[in-house]
Amino acid sequence: MNSLSNENCTLARDVKITDDELLVELTDGRKISAPLVWFPRLLSASPASRGHWELLGDGEGIHWPEADEDISVGNLLAGARGTRGLSSGAA
Predict the structure, then answer these.
(1) How many structural domains comprise the chain?
(2) How far apart are CA 62 and CA 54, in angstroms?
(3) Does 59 reside within a domain?
(4) Domain membership of residue 75 as a residue range
(5) Residue 87 falls inside a structural domain
(6) What CATH number corresponds to the domain at position 33?
(7) Nearest CA to 82 among 42, 44, 39?
(8) What secondary structure does DSSP assign to 17-82, as a single string?
(9) Mind listing the pLDDT tens digit for each residue in 39-74?
(10) Global pTM exceeds 0.85
(11) Is residue 34 situated within a structural domain?
(12) Is 88 inside any structural domain?
């Protein structure tokens, strides 16, 4: 149970995106990654748009204004996939 409450306090520090992966560095030193195909809006965004991100709050989440995408650190830690855009045939 304690591990869940600790994960809820974990914040993002830095973000990098490769051609096929989202990489997030956390304030506790961990680095987590997820396949970019899990986030259709980021996958279809230009490299410049992917590089334009902002931390939400103190790092609880990440926002890409040009791609209209928001991802929470908690969801990344839980392995949750993005759902926006999937209904428009991107699955």
Answers:
(1) 1
(2) 6
(3) yes
(4) 2-82
(5) no
(6) 3.30.2020.40
(7) 39
(8) E-SSEEEEEETTS-EEEEEGGG-HHHHHS-HHHHH--EEETTTTEEEETTTTEEEEHHHHHHTPPP
(9) 999 999 999 999 999 999 999 999 999 999 999 999
(10) no
(11) yes
(12) no
